[in-house]
Amino acid sequence: MASGAILPVPTPRSSTRQLSVFPCTTRFGYSLGMSAQGTAISSPLLEQTFRRTWPEVMVPQAPLVTHSSPGRIDVLGGLAAEVGGVVAQMALSRRASVAVQWRTDGRLAIYSARLTPATGPSPITLNADQFPATPGTPMRSPREILDLLPRSLPSADAARCQPWAAPLVALFELVLSHPQLATASPLRDRRTGRFAGATVFIHSDIPMHAGQASSTAVITALTQAICRCLPATISTVEKAVLIQQAQNMFGGTGSHVVDALTTLCALDGPPPHILRYNAQPHDLIGQIPLPADVKILALNTGVPALKGGQTVRSLRLAGAMGLQIIQVIYNDLGRQEAPLHGYLGNLSPSLYRRYFRALLPRRLRGRDFVRSYGPLPPSAGEINPGQFYRVRTAIDHLISEHEHAEHFLHEMEQPAEPVPGHRRSRAFRDLTLRRAGRLLLASHHSYRLRLGLSCWQADWLIDRLMSFGPEHGIFGGRIGECGGGGTVTVLTNCSAAATEAILEIIHAYRTTVGSALHVDVAGGPGSAGALLVK
């Protein structure tokens, strides 16, 4: 098949001056004014753009199903989702867009505007006999799915990460095996019952490996596009679980269901909201609107958030070990049922520090843990018998991260909650923002000092931001997601002093680090400032 020219999805430019001067350059070489005045891309515009991008590939008469989903940032909480803690997230203006055109020849073809060379795309294609023939067919292993894909992919990152198309193929397998969706038209041929085929077109301006859910947003958009065509319906949470399963099959640092929920349920704001989740297992329990004079910025350092993968996997296992040890301690004290209900997030931080912390080993070899406390549940992962795990350090960070997120959200509620007959003073608002900023900084120091999951670029950025400090409207920041690089989240106000400080840091970052610092404003129109709660 021939391919048309690869064009970017047009994004409306902002007419505002404030913060729209921060350039966000895509791989297509054009500049987007990513400000709070951006808007989501409409379905007609998406369809028009995709048809113009791949005219030789698409069937003109066949309908095109489109959907776009936003990226998101981890405001605070991050790894605490693994222990049932509190998680705070916001969506971004950057979006991943997907178009699906159904076929009848039993082939799946995937085209990507980001990862295909300008000389002409060679799509990733699979045949119907490579998908489950009947509902209930066992899923292939991740290695078997990877073996279906081309060995050499047109991506500069192919040697460092799993092929980007693997989770998309896994999503089709999951949908074809789903008891409610497996037999639905147009997924299966009516005569043979096999997969009928589809062509998938992808465009995303969410940077990869930046901790902004680039992969999650693409899988979410594809899930939404597929489900729009099917007569059967599944709940939002079921979709989020499908997305998380497809993404986590291929290693990496893993994602949580709440990541998919943010990209799934988001609607256009304003006002921008911080989304509060309780990860037991994945419940949206509230939204906190940001005051009009407060912003949360996402500063993409340009450092791929990859190096922390092994550390995060060890951290998760060490956290599961710590939970099992604490449960054994409860049993030894005569409590048949530990009051944690399987989540460290239910353990009081003060109780942990007073009684349990000293009882946890600093380092514990995998085989010694299994001999003393038994194996971990399969969902926790596989222990390396010869590896040492820093159990106490892991629990320290996870408990602290949960505590930081809970207190941060409490502080952010103060200026947002109206008090009848009382007008909150500017001094009170400034005090709550200062406390919230210190909690962001405490989280960053835990990533940096406890886990070694920061990078010098992020540390330099945090230090430079706080050299301006609250006096210039910059209250705090932290490295997000799983650390190792990626995005720094910053709490700031909308004053002229804060804007000038950010502009100065952008210039200094290019001079010091040698690469551009990309800045986005979280939570504005086009980035889903509010959620549709069903």
In short:
36% of the residues lie in helices and 18% in strands.
Descriptive account of the structure:
The two termini are 43 Å apart. The model is unreliable at 1-39, 115-121, 152-162 and 526-534 (pLDDT under 50). It contains 13 helices and 17 strands. Strands 3, 4, 5, 6, 7, 9 and 10 form a 7-stranded mixed β-sheet that branches. By secondary structure, the protein is of the alpha+beta class. Helix 4 (214-228) crosses helix 6 (257-265). Helices cover 36% and strands 18% of the residues. A hairpin with a 4-residue loop joins strand 9 and strand 10 (283-289). The chain has helices at residues 43-53, 142-148, 166-177, 214-228, 236-248, 257-265, 309-332, 349-356, 366-373, 391-416, 426-451, 456-468, 496-513; strands at residues 23-25, 31-33, 65-76, 86-102, 107-112, 124-127, 198-204, 266-267, 273-278, 283-289, 294-300, 364-365, 388-389, 474-479, 487-493, 518-521, 530-531.
Tags for this model:
disordered N terminus; 13 helices; 36% helix; 18% strand; 534 residues; seven-stranded mixed sheet; alpha+beta; four-stranded antiparallel sheet; disordered C terminus
Low-confidence stretches: 1-39, 115-121, 152-162, 526-534
Number of alpha- plus pi-helical segments: 13
Rg, nearest Å? 24 Å
Shape annotation = globular
Strand content: 15-25%
Helix content, binned percent: 25-40%
According to DSSP, the number of beta strands is 17
| Average pLDDT reading | 79
Q: Major sheet, described briefly?
A: 7 strands, mixed
Along the chain, the helix and strand elements come as EEHEEEEHHEHHHEEEEHHEHEHHHEEHEE
Q: What's the N-to-C terminus distance?
A: 43 Å
Category by helix and strand content: alpha+beta
